[in-house]
Design a protein that fits this description.
about 270 residues; alpha/beta; TIM Barrel; seven-stranded parallel β-sheet; 7 strands; about 35% helix
């Protein structure tokens, strides 16, 4: 069973201040039915619904979807790490609404203090949730400190922390990112190449990056996701799913871990 571990759905929000901020506008619905059609067409059996930026802390759509179809969907919620109520809000979404993970977004300037709310991280440990981090290379040191302090937590770095292919795989920033592999509770998503590649699909400038990440982290700590719906414009759902077929050095067992087993272990345990 293929698992798409990084997808977004949302309802239209005409109040969003900057509709052009991302590839897909919040002024249009991205319904579950659309995601489901792509999943069915490409043989994807499960998906992890990651809260998008538009509804803020109202995780109701993804939580209700996952609760209604728990074998097909899991939900990763968002709470505002700047507030003292964040730990209790997280507990509500996990215990009362069934979310299985939390996403922090230090890549957004407004949430740059995501690593500083000790009480929130302690509650993550208590609840045993998977912590996803939308980060950039400048956040790698903070990720490392949290991973060392909370070794019981699985921490997943989204989109490989947005590396710069033009800087090369030997850049100091990327080498620091690779050093996260020394922390066994850190996993990575080789996802969203369309977010940082300077070339169109198949994003060949990212090939050396992927090879080094695989070498350091290994296939047991890598999790695929399409980044639906943004991927529809930049690459296409099918091409994103078949991306790893380009790498002849990946065995069938490696691809199964990356495309299925690792996400199932985290979100359907």
């Amino acid at each position: 069973m293929i698992v798409d571990a990084h997808v977004h759905i949302w309802k239209q929000d005409l109040r969003f201040p900057n509709p052009s901020a991302t590839f897909m506008s919040p002024t249009s619905d991205i319904p579950l039915e659309l995601l489901s059609r792509y999943m069915d067409e490409h043989g994807v059996g499960r998906a992890v619904l990651v809260q998008p930026m538009y509804p803020g802390e109202d995780n109701s759509l993804i939580a209700d979807t996952a609760r209604a179809q728990p074998e097909r969907y899991a939900a990763v919620c968002v709470v505002d790490p700047r507030t003292p109520e964040a730990p209790d809000r997280l507990e509500h979404w996990v215990k009362e609404r069934g979310c299985r993970g939390m996403r922090l977004r230090p890549a957004f300037a407004a949430e740059s203090m995501a690593f500083e709310n000790d009480a929130l991280w302690e509650r993550c440990r208590k609840l045993g949730v998977v912590v996803s981090v939308l980060a950039r290379m400048e956040h790698v040191a903070a990720i490392a400190r949290r991973a060392e302090r909370f070794p019981e937590l699985s921490i997943v770095v989204d989109h490989l922390a947005h590396p710069d292919p033009a800087a090369g795989p030997g850049s100091p920033a990327f080498l620091a990112f690779l050093a996260l592999a020394d922390l066994p509770n850190v996993l990575v998503k080789p996802t969203g190449f369309h977010n940082f590649s300077k070339r169109p699909y198949p994003h060949e400038d990212c090939d050396p990056i992927f090879a080094l990440v695989l070498d350091r982290f290994g296939p047991d700590r890598m999790i695929w996701g399409s980044d639906f719906p943004h991927v529809l414009i930049k690459a296409g759902y099918g091409p994103a799913l078949r991306h790893f077929e380009r790498y002849s050095y990946l065995s069938a067992a490696d691809r199964e871990r990356i495309l299925s087993k690792n996400a199932e272990r985290l979100y359907w345990r």
